[in-house]
Amino acid sequence: MSRNSRVWFGAVTALVVLAADQASKWWVLEVLRLPELVSVPVLPVLNLTMVWNHGITFGLLTSQSAWAGFMLAAVALAVVGFLTVWLFRAERMVVAIALGAVAGGAIGNVIDRARFGAVVDFIHAHVMGWSWYVFNVADAAIVCGVAVLVLDGMRHPGKPKQDPAHDPERLAAAPGEK
Question: 3-state DSSP: the chain helix, strand, coil percent, rounded to 5?
Answer without folding.
Answer: 65, 15, 25
